[in-house]
Design goal:
Number of domains: 1
Largest sheet: 3 strands, antiparallel
CATH topology: Glycosyltransferase
Distance between the termini: 25 Å
CATH architecture: Alpha/alpha barrel
Radius of gyration: 19 Å
Shape: globular
Number of strands: 11
Order of helices and strands: HEEEEHHEHHEEHHHHEHHEEEH
CATH class: Mainly Alpha
Amino acid sequence: MSNTDALLQAAGAWFLNSGIQDSSGGVARFYHTGIARRARVSTEITGYTVSTLVFLYERTGEDEYLEGALRAARFLTRMAWDRGLQTFPFEYSSNGEGVPALAYFFDCGIIVRGLLNVWRLSNQPEFREVAIAAGRSMLDFQAAEAIHPILALPEKHPLAYEPRWSASPGCYQLKSALAWQELFEATGEIPFLRAYESAVARALANEQDFLAGEINREKVMDRLHAYAYFLEGLLPVLNRADCAEAFQKGLRRLGEYLREIAPVFARSDVYAQLLRLRLYGESLAAFPLDFGAAAQEAGEASAFQAASDDPRLAGGFWFGRKSGEMLPFVNPVSTAFCLQALILWEDRRNGTFEARRQALI
């Protein structure tokens, strides 16, 4: 068994056997080793997991991954989706505990992309139908000046912006606007295409300010994760000169900041996002690949995989490291991004890499 096969098998087993996905199909935001508890089920993280399990099924053909993807997708369409409000609330409670009555633009886009991924694979109409309805409801977040990041439910009034990046408009929202682009490809509905193109224009207009908006080094690392979302959101338009220039400059900026801050605080997902972006940029737009930097990022990402006899940890990826110590979170998104990046890196080294935009988790 190759190193990549072993990595895939271990990370896949973590998704299936760690308990991060509960019996409803919903997926928790993370597992906290310090208190031996999962976080609450998150609709956003469930959406990411749908895409991850589809990716694993396509790579292996193993039915367990397809079954897990379908369970997660049905949780989203049959339990999490609020048909009356036509949106996905922020988190889901199965035991009556209070959860914030909020909807996030970013989360909705991730969920839509997950549902489209499982629909393409299974051809089950409920996933397409809810994805389309959710994509239309994402238009409620648009305003003349910005895409509101959070709406209060049930009125769908925008929340006042806060300094933290996830509670303010910004270029990172372009990752979720990919849902509109993919819905246009699935339906031919022009409003989806126009909404994505509007999001591209907004992101290009404000991306220069996004990393400069924070001076705390650790918080800049968090913003690198979000800035990579902006670059991922540009993948469909790398044929445009302005977008290609922004992508290449942004890739350099991302790498420079990461190398500078990593000795103090490093996030595993940022290494993985940067590596995936390098690979997609080379394949989709023939941008030169810095092979040495990519190899270094692959090595750094792989070092975050947990080795343990505890199935709650084994094969998953740690969220991050501060001053040489792993933080006590094993995280579905970190695991998904690192798993995919390392597999695609092996494909690139073997000459078999294919850049399919919709497969990017």
